[in-house]
Design brief:
The complex is a heterodimer. Chain A has eight helices and ten strands. By secondary structure, chain A is an alpha/beta fold. In chain A, strand 7, helix 6 and strand 8 form a beta-alpha-beta unit. Chain B is elongated and about 70 Å long. Chain B contains eight helices and no strands. Classes of the chains: A alpha/beta, B mainly alpha. The structure holds adenosine-5'-triphosphate and magnesium ion (MG).
Amino acid sequence: MSGDAVIVCKGVGKRYGRKWIVRDIDLEVRAGELLGLIGPGGHGKSVLLRLLAGLATPDEGEVRVRGKNLADIDPFELAELRREYGYLFQNYALFDFMSVADNVAFPLRQAGGVEEPEIARRVKERLEQLGLGEALDRFPSELSGGMKKRVGMARATIGEPAIVLYDDPSAGLDPVTSSKIFRLVRTMHHSQDDVASVVVSHDIDRMKVICDRYVMIFEGKVLFDGPEEAIEGADPMVGKFFFGSLGQSSGAS
Amino acid sequence: MNASTTNFFEAIGAPVVDIARAWGSMFGCGLRTLRAIAMARIAWREVIHQSYLIGNRSVPFITVTLGFLGMISVYQVAMQIKQIIPDFTMLGPAFIQIMIREFAPTITGLMIATRVGSGIAAEIGSMTVTEQVDALRMCNADPIVYLIVPRAIACMVMVLMLSIYAVLVSTISGMLMANGAFDINMRTFLSLQLTNGDDIVIGAVKALAYGFSIPIIAGNAGLTTSGGSEGVGWATTRAVVSTSFAVVVLDFLISAAGYIFT
Ligand SMILES: Nc1ncnc2c1ncn2[C@@H]1O[C@H](COP(=O)(O)OP(=O)(O)OP(=O)(O)O)[C@@H](O)[C@H]1O
Ligand SMILES: [Mg+2]
């Protein structure tokens, strides 16, 4: 299943103030692999995702994407790499001065090379697929949380990125829409060869359907890294978290 | 080094490092803005939109402030003159010169600094804390090019135009005061006898310098915001204080340069 490593973290640590939020993270995201990032709330998943995208710079260790250290590449190389990324932010991060359609079209317009009618067609198609066909001309402030999440999802996937990071794609969504979203994650993942996807979620049942491998972050460290079958032999915490009782509300320090 | 000396150096060092960092990021922001303008990476539609926002809503403020300023200063000066030599012929020309050279651009700059500076910091600050700026970065849209450059150009143009407007408003109100209270002939008042090209150049340079530095400082405060809505509040306050301070310092520097080189 797993191809070459697309993103490699070596001894990555990030702190805010004096407190280390994540530390000693060794992690690979491989081409063609759908990686599930799990762990209790507030233990550093979103921070790690930001590090993987180069939105935050590690205070320790390094993050390499396609062999290049994000901390010291020139802006052109960074731009080149960013073209491959799709990122769904946990709190949507929709541009509130743009309509839904413009939000979703933004990555395509920014990348260039696609004609306006084609952009409009793709945007409409993607939004309809997510049940938002009616919302094209509305503004983010007029949408519910779940709708914003879906718009964010459309914006993250519209450019058919090769590296996609989803921060909690199904948070605040009803079960039917959640399943739809996870199906889209899988569709995106298989839309081309060698897509590398990372999904952060608490929705473990739905993750089980699509993920190839799991990494559990606990108190800023990697507590588990492997496929579902390997959980049995791992720290009992992982099993508890994965198979039941330890939900997102507990565990946060 | 023992613990107390370490603490001592930390106590001295940390603020110094913080200040150096803040200045560094501000100048970095200014340089990157200039470079983007030089490379013609400008979204003209956004420039026009921003110009409208800055200019349109500032006109009433400028009208009221400069209108009163014109009347008050003419009244005060005329009262002084009356006590010494009751000859008002140079009052108008001197008033117009100092308005062009000093007060119109600087008062306009201060007003824009508080009104527009706080607006820019709040807007960009809330975009930063809601990760919209990060979303721009992920789409390869440089926040400087996308957010700061249009505001910088719009603000330069608008401060210049509003300064010209401010000269007109204050001159008219001053002239009416001079005519009404001191019976000074309007023609005598409205004279450019003391105003020369240097005064106009210095006034214009001031307006452009304020117009450029306000969005840079305020925008940089917005981009470096951290910590939710409270952070946005702090960024806004910081922007108002530093932009007003910048206007005063630039006023001093440009005036000094003006007296040295002309
Ligand atoms: N910019 C920041 N400044 C200071 N602390 C931060 C910052 N961002 C995150 N943190 C802290 O880092 C820790 C981890 O946060 P993170 O958002 O990664 O959690 P998470 O695992 O994504 O949680 P959730 O599942 O609830 O989304 C939290 O304690 C948070 O307070
Ligand atoms: Mg999170």
